[in-house]
Amino acid sequence: MYKISVYQIPELDQKHVHIKDPERVAKIIKQMMDDAHHKLQVVADFDRTLSKYAHAGHVCSTTHGVLEDSDHMPEEFKVKARKLKDTYLPIEFDGTKTIAEKIPQMIEWWTNGHALITNSHLTRDLLRTIVRDSSSHLRDGCTWFFEQLHKHEIPLLIFSAGLGDIITEVVSHQAVLYDNMKIVSNFLDFDETGKVVGFVGDMIHVYNKNEHAVHSSDYFENIKHRENLMLLGDSLGDLRMAEGAEDVVCLLKVGFLNFKVEENLEQYKESYDIVIVQDQSMAVVNSLMTKILGQS
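== 5'-nucleotidase ==
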């Protein structure tokens, strides 16, 4: 029988790490270790996955929250944005509703939220200032994670229902935006004066990540030899990020659970191979990556 301890990953034995089927997970890890970095690709959400849920005792801003929490934004925008969040966030994390039941409400939330941003007189220069002053933080150990993926030429697809321009700014300021990283998200459309006039392309919300054009593009086709995929997410909708990777043989799903833990833990354990509860670091993921890369 396979046991996690065989691979000497003590981070997986911590109380805040939950694994429903340790034997199955051990087999996946062993396969990834055997194949090393040559067959690996990573697909990750950003908000509350690569970025922290909380820092120094305070809840951090998501990419949308960076604007909602900023003193640089109009008060009318912030009031309306918070009202939307108060209305729809409980629906997103309502364990009694199915994803199909939640989708119409998520579409309403994103549609109304993006309309608020478009009408807020936001500029490219102001956006940079807002991000610089924000409480958005990459997880502890995220810089090392990015460095290793780049060093070993492992593709990283950051697939987010948040704001791509803010992801770009956060990663660029707090780490390095490497050429092996691709960001698929909701990107702002600026006019010739640098003012936001809308969004580029189709809207990405938390439950339609399987429908985005990246799945019909040549992204996954170009890396189909990378049959091992590590998926990192913090919502059930994130599980669909890799549906375009049809040639994947070995899939390891790692979920971060930060919110309404008691209500959602069992459902997360059913959906993710490894569930990491209320941890603001990349320690568990980095320990897995260390083993896969043969560094210990």
